[in-house]
Amino acid sequence: MVSGRALRADAARNYERILGAAVAAFEEIGPEATLEEIAERAQVSVMTLYRRFRSRDQLIRAVFDHVLITEIEPMTTAHTDDPWQDLVGALTTVADVLAQRQAIHSLALEFQTFANETAHRLLRSLEPLISRAIDAKVVRPELQVRDLAAVIMMTAATVHPGDPHSAGHRRYLAILLDGLRPSSTALPRPLHGTPPAHPPTNSDPRSRGGGP
């Protein structure tokens, strides 16, 4: 007789295999990757996949959260004795992941699974970094965490479709990072309200219109 613990361990393994297969399928095949294709790659039945994820939307949300937790958040928790480099490293990681995971990012926006909850989670993880940088006087004292959201959005808009490994977006990120440094010129007061927390992709209509 199989124990409950063994069943739970098997279910956890299936969950991770499905997520890994989904990441690979969406990146290799694109948004048209089917749930059947993902189940085959994960070596599980379609019924098992649907038991864990009742809809395509739910799976895409889980995939994006998986990328956030495994590829982005570890960099936002890396604290060294250099607050500036910690902040730069975190923002560079976010920009690189969004550039390399264009298919998943586009799907998340299309299915509206990059919800405020997920975006706010990312921004909350950046708050300690910007606070430490302000305390160390290596960035403008008037910076807010939502300013980092704008930096991420603008950098993501410079990513060229079909060339995710190009370092072009890093050029523009470097220009934006210079604007975070202390300056004798104060920033204008922020607009009321919070700007959209999710970065646009080139497939998002808001990002079209002749970017770099």
From TrEMBL:
Pfam annotation, one family: TetR_C_43
One MF term in the entry's GO annotations: transcription cis-regulatory region binding
Keyword Kinase: no
Source superkingdom: Bacteria
UniProt protein name: TetR/AcrR family transcriptional regulator
Region feature (Disordered): 184-212
Lineage: Bacteria, Bacillati, Actinomycetota, Actinomycetes, Streptosporangiales
SUPFAM superfamilies given in the database record: Homeodomain-like, Tetracyclin repressor-like, C-terminal domain
Span of domain HTH tetR-type: 12-71
Keyword Oxidoreductase listed: no
Keyword annotations of the record: DNA-binding, Transcription, Transcription regulation
Annotated region of DNA binding: 34-53
